[in-house]
Amino acid sequence: MTDSAEIDFMKLEKQAMRLRIRCLQMVHRAKLGHLGGDFSSADILTALYGAVLHVDPSMPRDPERDRFIMSKGHCSGALYATLASAGFLTDADLDTYMKPLSKLNGHPDRNKVPGVEANTGPLGHGLPISVGCALAAKISGVSWRTFVLVGDGELQEGSNWEAGMCAAQYKLDNLVLIIDRNRIQQGDFTENTINMEPMAARWRSFGWDVHEVDGNNMEAVVECLRSAPFTPNVPSCILAHTIKGKGVSFMENRPSWHHHVPSDEELQKAIAELEGGQL
Amino acid sequence: MSRMVDCRNAYSKKLEEMALADERIVAIVNDSVGSAKLGGFKAKFPLRFINVGIAEQNMVGVSAGLANGGKIPYVCGAACFLTARAMEQVKIDLGYSNHNVRLVGISSGMAYGELGPTHQSIEDVGWMRIIPNMTVIVPADAIETEAVMEYSGVHQGPMFLRMSRIPVPDLFEAGMKFELGKAISLREGNDITLMANGVMVCRAVQAADELQKAGISARVLNMSSVKPIDREAIIDAARNTGGIVTAEEHSVYCGLGGAVAEIVTQTYPTKMRILGVPGVFAPTGSAEFLLEHFGLTAEGIRSAAIELLRSR
User: Fold this and answer.
1) Which contiguous run of DSSP H or E holds residue B193?
2) Rounded to whole angstroms, how far apart are CA atoms B130 and B91?
């Protein structure tokens, strides 16, 4: 990790744009995937691996590494492309996404993919596992941190709230929960399904320190992530307001792009939009 | 018959000993400090004792995270909630992830008798043994419980230890070693084989002694290691004795009887009788009453053996 002054935000933004293009190509090739959530979380993932996490692809199981748990495991495309960019996978690996016998399953497998900390996919698993990681570090008196990225719809699973109470009880100030608040789940907008608000107040009432951020603004995301954990003896929550499908006009904020597979034409159009953006 | 012992005491005493020697060992409970007999552990190792409250899904997820962080977690809770309530976490966070976690299912089977089917756990062996990577052990007495605990300290991968609270007599010599995947012979015999685990082993031994009086020599195998299971011992029993009676404090579906039948039918088909709870929710009654009610007694095993031999 570098000093804040040395962080090249423009470079990270370009990296996040390339990550989205890689996800498009992977999903187009596999004819399966979850691009909407890949795109909403692309900036957060890029920020984590580019400017926050202490991880080393040459020692993926280094006991002292920071843990990052991708609880929204269906956004494996974004995770794998991020891991490739960070050196845990090769770019060629990404072309095998969901192909027969590929290590890149539709949902990540820690025993096949270096850098993956938890097998996720069913929702509501990542936060309890992260609480366990943070507890392990506390018990051992070591300084590595645990970050976990959850989807907003995912928080409809009760296990998250069990874990939320537990993290506060054990004063896990080495744990950072990031909520990808893109407001869309598979079937509809979250608020048309189960009202998730007031989300920040709910987490505060569970004993967490909540900071809100524009989850698609690289500089803001990096600064927020780097300032966490926020408060001694209290777990940290980053409520990242994001846009599902962020970066492509016809994908943004459309529930159908939760797991829509782009046609050849949509692929070209989307890549052109991403490459022609203001970056 | 010697002393009658609640195996939970053996497991908790051993866990404290192991924790003293290996600082990676941690205990996790779902409010079940007393029923899991962990008051001593909590007092001796307060930082390594985690009570997540009444929240089994979180409990199992937390254990996976602790294992990720280099700990060896023992997750101790009533078997009925630990397995059924947290089933997806057990499948994904422990089995599929292959995390090094021990699940200690306390008061399994019908130990909670009068509390009813909500608190009984007669499905857990089936649920656990179907999950890839999961090891399933059902010890027969306090001495074997200690030996299994000792082994669990070096085992790699997730493991389910089924821990009854129904008192049982000592069947083994102190200091016995547990060997994963090995049946243990408690009586030699060639007329028929009685296979049992957990609280049914002492009853199978009694049944064999009764059969002996009638001139029937029954082999008794303690099948504490349900998964992996001793395939060779099963094939030998099928080939060289007149049939197999299995007895378990579990549903007749998917438990020890099912595991044995899966091997017998594909290798050396022979007649079997599978004794257990016959696909019903139990009526009200104490554990002893229910074992009697379902014929899970020495007499039940004896008569099943005779009926099997007569049917040949």
Assistant:
1) strand B192-196
2) 9
pLDDT at A1 over 60: no
Q: What is the token pair recorded at A9?
A: 């935000």
User: Within 13 Å, how many C-alpha atoms sit on residue A153's CB side?
Assistant: 21
With CB atoms and an 8 Å threshold, state whether B58 touches A162: yes
Question: What CA–CA distance (Å, rounded) separates A260 from B2?
Answer: 68
Residue B194's alpha-carbon distances to A166, A273, B139, B311, in angstroms, are 46, 72, 16, 16
Nearest to B47 among A110, A129, A139 (CB): A139
- Using CA atoms, how far apart are residues A222 and A44, in angstroms rounded to an integer? 8
| Rounded average pLDDT over B292-306 | 98
**A100 residue type, one letter:** P
B105: phi then psi, degrees, rounded to nearest 5: -85, 100
For residue A147, list its beta bridge partners: A68, A176
Which of B48, B90, B97 is the best mutation test for A, with the most CBs of A within 10 A? B97
Q: Is the dihedral of CA B159, B162, B163, B168 positive or negative?
A: negative
**Which is nearest to B73 in space by CA: B44, B47, B38, B99?**
B99
**Mean pLDDT to the nearest integer, B234-259:** 98
**Cβ B50–A127 below 8 Å, yes or no?**
no
CA distance A136 to A148: 15
Task: Determine contact: B48 vs chain A, CB below 8 A.
Answer: yes
The token pair at B300 is 């039940």
3-state secondary structure of A181: strand
- Dihedral of the alpha carbons of A52, A117, A239, A143, in degrees to the nearest 10: -50
**Cα A257 to Cα A255: distance, rounded to the nearest angstrom:** 5
- Asked whether the predicted pLDDT for residue A249 surpasses 60, the reply is yes
Question: In this structure, what is the dihedral angle of CA atoms A105, A111, A112, A117, given to the nearest 10 degrees?
Answer: 70
What CATH number should be reported for the domain whose range is A9-275? Answer: 3.40.50.970
Disruptive mutation site among A130, A133, A206 for chain B (greatest number of B CBs within 10 Å): A133
Query: What amino acid occupies position B223?
Result: M
Q: Where exactly are the structural domains of chain A?
A: 9-275
pLDDT, tens digit (0-9, with 9 covering 90-100), for B254-266:
999 999 999 999 9
Q: Which residues contact A28 (CB under 8 A, 6 or more apart)?
A: A261, A262, A264, A267
Q: DSSP 3-state assignment of A106?
A: coil
Residues belonging to chain A: 279
In sequence order, what are the residues at sequence separation of 6 or more whose Cβ sits closer than 8 angstroms to the Cβ of residue B284?
B114, B116
pLDDT digits (tens, 9 = 90+) for B165-176: 999 999 999 999
Q: What is the ipTM of this complex?
A: 0.94
Q: Is the per-residue pLDDT at A2 higher than 80?
A: no
All domains in chain B, ordered by first residue = 4-169 (3.40.50.970), 184-310 (3.40.50.920)
**Residue B102 in this model has a pLDDT that exceeds 70:** yes
B84/B209 Cα distance (integer angstroms)? 37
